[in-house]
């Protein structure tokens, strides 16, 4: 007990010392520490605390103060390490938050000077303006930081042409283990000798490392695997080769690449850039088996490709189940067991076409595969590249509960000429241990990422995993390959380095660590002197989930067979939610760059809360509230997260549980009753619209409900959609059968014109429209955690809709799609839910069918015809059914030039953008991509959006009116 108290006091003193000296954030709370206890590996170690430094001075102070308090230091980027490099009992330095600036880019010298938190795609966008790029191309390029790539010696699909990160590092500014700084760059013999005279740690490096290289010359010459593509161990071979070159050089900048933060902490790097090819063409070979695809690699390599990538059936089948990758299924031929992606890049299209022709002919001559798809334009390549780069995430999605595809033998590489034989032997090892695995990776460099499914919560499975790891270690050694080819050693493979490199070379590596870090303060336990690979396992350490009775049925949620905690713990920290330049997930992270505000941060926070002895109490914790607060419940994680972590549903249940303990806030009750509020507003309009115009009333609303004073309020319509529907003339003909139109709470009372346009179009198309306006779908109550109320509303609406026949359509995606998603979680296996969900369709789909059949005719002289239309899709629509039908509908307008924005979430998210404490983040989300895209359009461009919140946000943020697509179709309809 005294020892624990002493440790707690020491951490508190370190936190206080750091807070006094560091400008960046210092976090030692339990939730932050838990969030940083995991990376994308199978390991978990709680750190002492987390610092997000703002500059190199913060890093120096953190290293010095940590040493004074006897605490190790662990530098971290995106935290997507697969081998456990970025977890440890240490002070974590998170460079991704603030130190993410491109300091200089020199197109003539083809170099960039960057801070370690710069993301690979961020650098490539900047370099691309000058026809350049960073050579290593990782599949995680939208969140991988340059600092992490340097620490790991990352490579990627193009390494056959561009090598590894070590081949592109020019200089490094570093903080050494004694908190002194140094500039690492190639130096000649004279300069090395001069620096060696300094009585500093840096001086010692220049003195002792050359002597070490000389002492261990023979082990260095013979102990490294012969294959070039490796990221394991310390690169003494590089020092030895440079020392024997003419003229001799000494380059610590490249030597420390791949050292996983164990030798220094980088604060700045100068990296080389390469010319960006102007054109890419891809051949996609279709094969009946994975071995057949691998056998075709030799022919592919003979054609000088830039990459050769394998994807097996496991990943192909998973991609077909996801909306985001649905386009792939439309372009593949038949049902392949494996695909081989062969990419050719260059500046001469004719030459690239010739390479494609040559490869196709070779494969035909040698009977490789049954079909070769040629993708020669970016449009043809989009779906292919999207799936190819998502191999890891898709494979992870195949896990169930704690039976997951794990990274422990996934990074071996052998000479591609021996890859087929090696893979066959590898597969036999797995078969002998009765393990299944997915196969994908880089055939061009002999690296396949093979991840066996293992349940680490079972001790016998842990034993089996270790046995497989040892057998594969010996197998890859037999083939002259490497155990770590781009994912590093970390906790998964460092233990085996003595066996892989031999006693003498391993001892030399231990000496390297001692020279750089005599007190073992920098990321200890990686590369040398590592613990067993079976220690610190994430799943084995997690306590059994305490009983928690939930309002929602989590068996319908991904991972929910293990209850609410199982749905949260499905997250494997791959970090797709940390991307910042495409898609929707995760809008709050894009705005704040805080780990807490990413989907994985929230999932990990929920795992912590749900692991407390009383999870109901855990769900009221302020630390959890901090993590969940900025979740916009956009549902993008349900489709964009490879593991479909459904944070919107998890947050709703968390709010519900907290309400049971703490009571329900007034504002939540008000927003949860939005249909009643809107009906009352319309009934009393125009008086009910006064709060939006009278400052005193608006101030009172802000004080009592916390409504942001800057936010315009919706205008209640006196003529509501139900009132109009009852009084409209009867439809002329109804030859298509019955149809139910869902009169949602917003279309009914604040934007009835949208509903009117939709109903008029449907009736003109021949549908016998029935209006369902008896109650709310429960969406608003669901979002506020009022699940008992939402359940009653859902049951009532399902009752009413269950008595109807024909399609059920609507114009507000969040409400209509509640019938397909939230009602399942609220009402479980109620057969009525399945019936209603199966008939629910967005109105766009039916209108496209009606136009194509000739039932609706559109005028070429209508005002929307011939115009450019900028379309922004609703987040829930993107997550649940996609936007293809809406885009198709807009394209039916004669002459329309339709552009769909990839602008993420609008930031409004229902009530979120109205709430005073969330207003700034709401607007920041909109400013990320949506607002600039709309402002960049000329006033003649028509802006369209399916969501009422989206239209409100666009109007507020840009002063541009956004139309619902059905309004544009109605305006184009011929008499």
What does this structure look like?
- It is built from 49 helices and 28 strands.
- With 975 residues, it is an alpha/beta fold.
- A 7-stranded antiparallel sheet has the order 17-14-16-15-19-20-18.
- It is globular.
Outline the low-pLDDT stretches.
Answer: none
Beta strand count? 28
Strand order of the largest sheet: 17-14-16-15-19-20-18
Shape verdict: globular
Computed Rg: 30 Å
Give the terminus-to-terminus CA distance. 84 Å
Helix % is: 40-55%
The average pLDDT score comes to 94
Indicate the topology:
Elements: H1 2-21, E1 25-27, H2 30-35, E2 49-52, H3 56-68, E3 73-76, E4 91-94, E5 102-106, E6 111-114, H4 120-128, E7 132-133, H5 146-152, H6 159-162, E8 169-175, E9 181-184, E10 187-188, H7 189-196, H8 201-215, H9 217-223, H10 236-243, E11 249-250, H11 252-255, E12 265-272, E13 274-275, E14 279-287, H12 290-295, H13 297-301, E15 307-312, H14 313-320, H15 326-329, E16 338-346, H16 349-365, E17 371-375, H17 378-388, H18 391-396, E18 403-405, H19 419-432, E19 437-442, E20 447-455, H20 459-478, H21 490-493, H22 497-501, H23 503-516, H24 538-541, H25 563-569, H26 587-592, H27 599-610, H28 615-618, H29 622-628, H30 636-640, H31 647-662, H32 666-672, H33 674-683, H34 695-705, H35 721-727, E21 737-742, H36 745-749, H37 752-764, E22 767-772, H38 779-783, H39 787-802, E23 808-810, H40 813-816, H41 822-827, H42 831-839, E24 840-842, H43 843-853, E25 868-872, H44 875-880, H45 884-891, E26 897-900, H46 919-928, H47 930-935, E27 942-945, H48 948-958, E28 962-963, H49 965-972
Parallel strand pairs: 2-4, 3-4, 21-22, 21-23, 23-24, 25-26, 25-27, 27-28
Antiparallel strand pairs: 1-2, 5-6, 6-12, 7-13, 8-9, 8-12, 10-11, 14-16, 14-17, 15-16, 15-19, 18-20, 19-20
